[in-house]
Structure to design on (353 residues):
């Protein structure tokens, strides 16, 4: 059995291409089920985040597995995936997933959000019954790898989430945030992490708008902020200094046409916008409005590079740990996992191998 990974990420594709291929959370199980219909494919997991879209499949043959994903993508968008998509055969696919869950392949080196996102993608596939023996074992081992790396290295030290990087960018612009008021569109995991980072930096107040008002209330209460219904965000906008987009909407939820009249009611007051969503929440044309400064997720790359240099010394240790896990898993997949490997896995996972 072969385990394969085909996908793209911020390393290989700009945001406009990533959002073109993005798969909504509600679609992931259906997409995995479609892949199972392809000849020779027996298991599938779909991972789609702000920075990556990846397909993991278990297939009888390498060529069959890659063909299944390529044909699905071509049919979905009426065009071939293109050179931005990488194709990892078994050994490379195993190492790639282990690096992804450990935060080594992220824009912000060592970030921890990706582990939760991979767990959610795997849970959806498991509940949808698109995984079995091989991908179950792979993803369970991957979560053990992430725990091992986070526990035994300093790769996650400091601000390692995309939300934290965004807050650093805001702080560089405004200095102290004690006089700033923030509006967050969305109440998911990224929104919560960003709000938490803002509160830690002493932001004056936080407004939360979400399609599900109950989720907006829950997040606002955690941050001692104020929640409101999503369609009411323009009414609260006159007091906002920083606007953060973090919804899962398939289209722009903030446009230049919406903002222009609102900005006229607040002259000489700049607006700082950070778009953390893929597809983007905030129309790029917003950046052309006077007094508006828009940064999308790709603009966080410079901050990520600084974070990467601070953690670079930990990379060698992490890569060695990942290589050890990858070799052991490869031996299991080939049917020759050694007793030493079993003992090591049991020690790491607390008995779950």
């Amino acid at each position: 059995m072969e385990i394969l990974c085909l996908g793209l990420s911020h390393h290989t594709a700009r945001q406009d291409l990533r959002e073109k291929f993005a798969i909504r959370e509600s679609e992931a199980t259906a997409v995995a089920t479609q892949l199972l219909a392809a000849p020779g494919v027996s298991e599938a997991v779909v991972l789609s985040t702000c920075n990556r879209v990846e397909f993991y499949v278990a297939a009888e043959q390498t060529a069959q597995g890659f063909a299944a994903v390529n044909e699905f993508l071509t049919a979905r968008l009426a065009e071939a995936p293109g050179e931005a998509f990488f194709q990892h055969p078994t050994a490379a696919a195993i190492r790639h997933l282990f690096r992804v869950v450990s935060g080594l392949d992220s824009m912000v080196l060592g970030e921890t959000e990706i582990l939760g996102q991979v767990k959610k993608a795997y849970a959806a596939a498991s509940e949808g019954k698109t995984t079995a023996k091989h991908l179950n074992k792979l993803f369970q081992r991957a979560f053990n790898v992430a725990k091992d790396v986070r526990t035994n290295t300093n790769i996650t030290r400091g601000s390692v989430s995309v939300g934290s990087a965004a807050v650093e960018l805001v702080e560089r612009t405004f200095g102290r945030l004690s006089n700033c008021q923030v509006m967050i569109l969305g109440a998911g995991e990224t929104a919560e992490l960003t709000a938490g980072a803002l509160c830690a930096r002493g932001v004056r107040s936080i407004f939360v708008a979400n399609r599900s008002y109950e989720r907006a209330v829950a997040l606002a209460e955690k941050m001692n902020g104020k929640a409101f219904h999503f369609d009411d965000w323009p009414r609260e906008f006159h007091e906002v200094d920083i606007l953060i987009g973090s919804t899962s909407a398939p289209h722009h939820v903030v446009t230049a046409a919406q903002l222009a009249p609102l900005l006229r009611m607040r002259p000489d007051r700049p607006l700082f916008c950070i778009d953390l969503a893929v597809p983007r929440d905030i129309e790029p044309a917003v950046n052309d409005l006077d007094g508006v400064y828009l940064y999308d997720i790709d603009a966080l790359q410079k901050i990520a590079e600084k974070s990467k240099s601070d953690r670079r010394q930990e990379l060698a240790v992490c890569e060695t740990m990942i290589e050890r896990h990858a070799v052991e898993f490869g031996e299991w997949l080939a049917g020759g996992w050694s007793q030493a490997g079993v003992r090591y896995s049991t020690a790491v996972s607390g008995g779950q191998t």
Q: What stands out?
A: The chain has a mean pLDDT of 86. The two ends are 19 Å apart (CA to CA). The first helix runs from residue 15 to 21. Strands lie at 2-9, 41-48, 52-59, 86-88, 181-185, 205-210, 226-229, 242-245, 271-275, 292-296.
